[in-house]
Amino acid sequence: MLNIAILSRGAGLYSTQSLFRASRMRGHYVRVIDHKRCNIVIEKDLPHIIYEGERLVGVDAVIPRIGASITDYGAAVIRQFELMGVYTATRSEALIIARDKLKCLQKLSAFGISVPKTFIAGSVEDVPALIDNLSGVPVVIKLLESTHGVGVILAHSRSTAISIVEAFSKFNKPVIIQEYIEEAGGADVRAFVVGKKVVAAIKRQAESGEFRSNLHRGATSTIELLTAKETEIVLMSAKLMGLEIAGVDLLRSNKGPLVMEVNASPGLEGIENTTGVDIAGDIIEYLDKRIRNFNKNKKW
Ligand SMILES: Nc1ncnc2c1ncn2[C@@H]1O[C@H](COP(=O)(O)OP(=O)(O)O)[C@@H](O)[C@H]1O
Ligand SMILES: [Mg+2]
């Protein structure tokens, strides 16, 4: 039996509930811990966390479900667990890199993964030339911190693209500019990785008149089979990001599959309901095996 802590701000959220139930069903002791209420105590030789007035002890595994709005504090809490010698299903460094679209794409592309051609402009004056370098419009402009498709814009003309970048830069919001993969037809593929396996995959299709295929933007999803090449790319991407649990999003382009992003805290609701796969169960069973190895290799 494991003592599992799910780090989540919402005990009632679908993914949290699903992981909670899957842990219980397998006979583990499980708690939902609000990372925002975890107080990090820094003290010589005794890193620990105070939660609801008590020192947290005896945790075997942490499953972080950290929302985008509190990545930094969430990562600090995960780091503290790491320093306490507790296994965490998402490492703090991996969370930080995956949350930053630019860092993520820099790393993947540098290690041979195909991604949509992307750039970040150091200054607005250079944007027109960069758009030309992407073989013109339309281009996709993304806020580095976008989620659920909010802050992802399709600019059909050069002048609109420049105005958008100017507007964001005025508010000091960094953006990336990306080639538009038109042939993807408003669809992308989400593959869910647990350990060294893709346990489920769905195709998400945007509503008509919309290019963003986020389920939060009204997209519909269907079960999808990946090609052998796609599977290889997905697993390699998760591995490069240092993630044992990941949602990898692909765009199917004329040049082959392109990795658009790697999600460190992928939601379970859409993909479990669409595929019927008990992903939470797969995660808990994977952790159970993983922790036995982790503890065996522990030096203290
Ligand atoms: N370069 C692109 N070409 C075509 N469609 C894109 C491109 N980038 C994003 N999209 C569409 O927009 C959606 C949201 O973009 P994404 O980068 O995943 O942002 P978010 O993190 O906010 O979900 C994607 O799921 C995809 O359907
Ligand atoms: Mg996305």
How would you describe this protein?
This protein is α+β, with helices and mostly antiparallel strands and 300 residues long. It folds into three domains: 3-90, Rossmann fold (3-Layer(aba) Sandwich), CATH 3.40.50; 98-113 and 183-264, ATP-grasp fold, B domain (D-amino Acid Aminotransferase, Chain A, domain 1), CATH 3.30.470; 118-180, Dna Ligase, domain 1. Helix content is 34%, strand content 29%. The chain has nine helices and 16 strands. The chain has helices spanning 14-25, 71-83, 92-99, 101-110, 127-133, 158-170, 228-240, 269-275, 279-297; strands at 3-7, 29-33, 38-41, 48-51, 54-55, 61-64, 87-88, 118-119, 139-147, 150-155, 175-179, 187-194, 197-205, 220-223, 245-253, 256-263. The strands form four sheets. A five-stranded antiparallel beta sheet has the order 14-13-12-15-16, with helices on both faces. Helix 2 links the parallel strand 6 (61-64) and strand 7. The longest helix has 19 residues, at 279-297. The structure holds adenosine-5'-diphosphate and magnesium ion. Residues 214, 249, 261 line the site of magnesium ion (MG).
